[in-house]
DNA sequence: CGCTAACGGAAGCATCTGCTAACGTTCGCG
DNA sequence: CGCGAACGTTAGCAGATGCTTCCGTTAGCG
C-alpha cells in the first residue's frame, strides 16, 4: 500500500514532473480548457457546465474527472450536486515550467543572434555567465 | 478556400486560440518536452537530438515537425544538416493564457473562501470588491 | 417507501497519435 | 557523375483518447 501516491489518484504534488505532465495533458484538450474557463470566474454544478456544450453530460463528467485528477479543479459536494471551480494552485507547476523554458530559450536565442553579428570573428569560448 | 490560415501550416499567429491549442498539444507530450529542453540551451542538429533518445530518428523528426509547426522551434539549414533551437516567442501565448486563467481562478477562490467564513453569519453587505 | 433529480462509472466504438520500417531528396566530396 | 551522409515523408500498426449508451449510487421530497 505504500505507493508513491498518498492522496490516492487525485492531484499529485505540485511542481513535480508528473504533475506538470498531467496538467499539460489536461489542458491540451480544447473542451477541457473551455470548462476551466467557465469555472474560473464562478463555482458551477456539473449539470450546469454540461449545458454549455453540445456533448453529453457523461463526456463533460469525464473531462471534469481528468481536470480534477490533474489538480486543476476543486470539487465541493452540495446534496446531489457537485460544485466545481478552478484551482489556481494547479497552474503554478506550469508557470514555473514555462518560466524556466522561456528563460533558457531566450538566453540561447540572444546568444545566437549575437553570434550571427560576429560570425567571421566569433570567439567560441564557453563563457557561461 | 480562403480559410483563416494565411501562413499555411507553420506556426500560426501568436496569441491566437489556435496557436495556444497547437502549443499546448505539442507540450503535452513528454518526449517533446525533453526535446525542447535539449534545444533550450543550445542549437543542435536533428541527428544529435535523436541520439539522446531510445526511439528512432524518424520519431524524433516527427516530434520536431510538430514542435516547429506549433511555433516552439526554430529551424536553420546548414548543408544537409538542420539545426534546431527553442523559440521563446512560441511560449508567450501560453504565458498569457496561464496568467489570465490564474487571475480569474485566484479571484474566484478568494471570493469563495471569504464566503465560507461568513456562512452562518448573514453578511449581506455590498462590499463587492 | 417510492419517486425523481443529479451525478459518476463501465463497456463499446470511432478516431487520433506516436512509433517503426522502407523510401525519396538534398548536399558535400572526389 | 557516383557515392555516402543527413533528414524528411509515407504507409501501416498498436495503444491512447474522447464520445455515447446504459446502469448504479446518493440525496431530497411526499
UniProtKB/TrEMBL annotation, chains A, B:
Residues 1-22 are annotated as: Disordered. Residues 12-113 form the HTH arsR-type domain. InterPro entries: ArsR-like_HTH, HTH_ArsR_DNA-bd_dom, HTH_MetalResp_TranReg, WH-like_DNA-bd_sf, WH_DNA-bd_sf. Signal peptide: none annotated. Keywords: DNA-binding, Transcription, Transcription regulation. PROSITE patterns: HTH_ARSR_2. Pfam families: HTH_20 (PF12840). SUPFAM superfamilies: Winged helix' DNA-binding domain. PANTHER family: TRANSCRIPTIONAL REGULATOR, ARSR FAMILY, TRANSCRIPTIONAL REPRESSOR SDPR. This is Winged helix-turn-helix transcriptional regulator.
